[in-house]
Structures are given as structure tokens and as C-alpha cells.
User: Fold this.
Amino acid sequence: MITIAAEVAEYVRNTPFLEEALARGIINMSALAREMRPRLRAATGRNVSPAAILMALKRMSPALVKRLGARPAGLKHAGDLIVRSNLVEYTFRRSDSLWEKQKRLLHRIERDREAFLTYTQGVYEVMLIASAGIEKAVLEIFAREELISHWKNLSAVIIRLTPRTAHVPGVYYAILKQLAWGNLNVIDVVSTSTEFTILIEKRQVEDAFSILKRYLWP
Assistant:
């Protein structure tokens, strides 16, 4: 039989940001209990009272505060926070000719120490993040490829992590959550074993840097 506590926990887990709001104590629990009541009555087949739902929410809150308030262990030894500005992003439809064009681009910029380039190949698409200084080369070499999307005026916030991060659940979620709460829009993310790169609009990069700096080094 489905219990009220289990159904309340499921509702909270599946509602965006509700866990965070409850942990921060910024939710009117009585109003939330009344809103949840129709769903819980349907799920349990019982005439669930708002008081019973409210009790289940209050019992959850201390555990949420403890679980969501602590930073994941993998972030306790985060390294540098680096910003790269003046970037562009291109997404192309994947084709048989892209591999050869990628090699041409790498050969073109191999002596350019200021160039920044990240190449990600998916199942159907290929994405390039590049410094604006090599945009002309990208457009020339990939001119005949099908362009899906193009972003300009981007910046990257790069977080240096430890190798142990790969074994710690919730690390990337914890980082991106801070930006979501700051109402910042993430355009893309790229990761390696010890670097997590967040691509964001140039106008928001200062806010993103400040938020992440406060979070990583409180």
C-alpha cells in the first residue's frame, strides 16, 4: 500500500526546485499541502487530510537541509576557476566529411597559442567551441557542412576538479544548481576527467563567476 510519506517524497523529488525551496525554508508548507492533496488522494485512494501531508513535509525538511546543504565531497578540493571569453559555438549535422575538416582546422591553428578549441562529436551532431579569433577559419573549412546552430559572444567558466570527482554522485548537479538559482542560462557544458567547462553568455559571466566562487570557497 502506498503511504502518504512515500507519495509526498516522490512528489517533492519530481518537482523542479521544490527540494531546494523546502530545504531553504522559503515554502509555505500549508499552502503546498493543500495543493498536493488532490494528487495524494488519487494516488493513495484515501481521503488524505492537509494536516497529514503537512506532517510528512515537516518530517522531510531536516533531512533535506542536511543532504542539500552540504557540498559533495568531490568539490572540497576544487582547484582554479578560469574564465575564457570571446568564444563562439557551432553545431553541425554529422557527416562523413567532418573528420577530415576537423584535421584541417587543427593543422591551421597548431601554431596559434591563443586559440581555444573544443570538438565534441555526438551521434547525430558535431559541436565546436572556438575562440572568436579563429572563427574565420572555422567558417571557411566547414562552409559546405549543414549548420544547425551558431552562438556568438560566449564565455567559458572552467572549474578544475580532482580525479576523485568521477566517483562522487551529484557533483555536476551541485554546480549547475547554483547557476540555476542565480537565474543564469547555461548554453552548454563540456567535461574531461579534471575539468568542467560551463559555456554561458558573455553578459552573465561575471555573475556566474561570483556565484561559483562563493560556492566553492565559502
